[in-house]
Amino acid sequence: MSQLIDKDVAIIGGGLVGSSAALALRRMGFSVVLLDKGFCGAQASGVNYGGVRRQGRPPEQIPLSQRAHAIWPRLKEIIGIDGEFVRSGHLKLARTEAEMASLEAYAARVAGMGLDLELVGHNQLRERFPWIAGNIVGASLCAGDGHANPRLVSAAFAHAARRAGVDVFEQTAVRHVEKASEGFRLSADRGIDIKARFVINSAGAWAGAFAEFFGEPVPLKKIYPSMVVTEPMGSFMTVNIGAEGGGIYARQVERGNCIVGGMRGEPNADSDFSRPTSTGAVTIMSRAAALFPALRQTYAIRFWSGTEGEMADRNPVIGFSRTTPNLIHAFGFSGAGFQIAPGVGEVLAELVRDGESRTPIQSFAIDRFARTEKNLHPGNIPEPTTRGTSK
Amino acid sequence: MSTALRPLIVGAGPAGIRAAQVMVTAGLRPIVVDEAPSAGGQIYRQRLFPDERSPRDLYGSEAGKASALHQAFVQIRDKIDYFPESLVWNIRDNVADIMKDGRHIRQGFSHLILATGATDRVVPFKGWTTPGVFTLGGAQIALKSQGCAIGEEVVFLGSGPLLYLVAWQYMKAGARVAAVLDTAPFLAKLHLARGLPSQPGVVFRGFRYAAELMARGVSVRFGVEPTRIEGQDRVSAVVWRENGRERRLACDAIGYGFALRSETQLADLAGCRFVFDERDRAWRPDRDPAGRTSVSGIYIAGDGAGIAGADAAELAGERAALALVEDAGLTFDHARVADLERRLNAIRRFRGVLEAAFPFPAAWAGSIEDDVQLCRCEEISVGQVRRAAHDQGVRELNRLKALTRVGMGRCQGRMCSSAAAEVLAAASGQPVEAVGRLRAQPPVKPLPLAMASDGEAA
Questions:
Q1: What is the H or E stretch that residue B403 is in?
Q2: In angstroms, what separates the C-alpha of B270 from chain A's closest C-alpha?
Q3: Is the pTM of this model over 0.90?
């Protein structure tokens, strides 16, 4: 039972990036098909920590991050739910003088970019955040940052896209994609064949294979975040917590559960699924109990993990393919994609409509890895070779 | 060779104890990890504190079996490494993560026998979260372990052999049993006649419980459809339909249950393949007749391998351990294996009879009201599950969890997931096996954040 679908844009991967791009494109009037090999938002977009954070991003990401920052408070209007988004503020702790110096240097580097960072000294920290224990030297507060529920936000974007008229196919892996005379031909599970003028590769940790097929290999690997969730308790953690140098991050959701991360999990036999390591989870629990006295008498009721794609330089790939016209890549968000993803969706829609975006993305070009290796450059586009289907 | 083997047994109930006994006989020294303070499992659970009650008071007709099992454990106690009040909360790559004495220890093993038992299968209906409502197993534990009745005026409700046993035990202990409300029609009990040739003792015992309850004036009703439990801070009455008429009975406590569900999370974490068990209406670890799972070196026995009861658990524990001994290349008693398998097969056939006599109320999932709470930990209603199916097209249990929080709370779906599967299956027009099962994640039960570790201390 095969069917041919003819659309302006085919999007591979229904995570937050693909889903928000689908929604933005549909609202511009494009016809869109969105394909996911599993369920939309069930991988990195749905299983990440849930930080909605600009603070700590490299300066080249800030314009994109600022664009997304404007979208988050409007979720209810855009996707029908607020996604438990709260503008709690994000407090990044320094445990040593060196870490504090690093926070100060960062604040200076991004000054004037709109983050409005506030450096907080030891005494002030004690006064304003008395629920944090330990020898914290100081911190940097980004009051406009916050957190949200990834499990809900990502699925809701896909659901909103569907309501807006996007054809959404879940549990439908794209098995083959190739350049055709007028755009692309894709074949997917369940006998679905697609003809599209544009293809967006937003396949997350699985995007590397599609990029490589079009002659653009990337240093993309899978990473597995590892979260510990406590039982619900009275509200005390008033900001989203991070630490300079890493090792722990924590937030408390409206229902009262605290979510604490800071270690990596490991893949199951089916590497699309993963579990926290026991030692990693226990380490997170110990760190949380040490840093937050209110948690010392509580229980961890569950752990979670998932699969994210990480680039060697920890910056995503966003933008046009350098080998294939009308192919757009957006993947490799390296454990920091949740906040910027809705902004990326808008940028991708602009790329389709205008061929460019008003938000600078040149730092995320895919050929940043290839420039030194091969003489691939725009204007010298090789024809991709045809790969056989797996069917 | 045997000195290099380090078998681990999870659970010190009937299956775990008999498995340990076999290993000790074979010259092995197993580690036995159990959550309870003393051995015996749920069925032969021991008193928390000594009191004047005799084994006969505690275990009724099963007193002989309970005493024999406890005695067997005493005899091997010095020949095993026994971790009571300890929790195996994760298994991966032949290592068990255990919480023992408030510390995290990682225990490697050469072989593993999972004897993790079962919990009550909870079927929610209106008012089931009212204080004073207990599961049948919970009501029984309160009596056996703590010497407490769950109320003064107790109604027992549901389906399954445990219904009559617990009601009878309460009556014997001097509690006032207001009624026994069986959701199965009386005619279903006639199926028990088919079990007479193979398990006459079990059948007669069941009838004796019911007969003695009735002789003491306890009202035993059949074909009951529970409507609601009334009461604000405490149960005040139960309301049900019977032969098309609504009935109401005042009471201050309710023990209810619809058979049992296997505790399978550790088998899942250990990577065992699962199959759907039509009779239990649940996914369970696949196993051969001896209890070998799909993972080499991992065995499963007792109710955690599919519901078969305490007698079968003793036999299956012994059988699985003999398989382990055989697989380890040690000598074992072939005649005993044949005898165990014959007796296990007889009990397994009889389980089919019991299921016909105490059927699951299959119509429940379609008729239960939207506002009934389904997931207690996360406060998710039946209606929310149905809406996820209808509005968002959810057809699978893990997706349901992600979108509604069902099974995401303190119990991690141990209490609610079988009911959630039934409601989702009914709402999405699929058989219950098609909605799948929740993927296990550690920890299988809550862990204190301040648990000390051999790595960084809290």
A1: helix B397-404
A2: 11
A3: yes
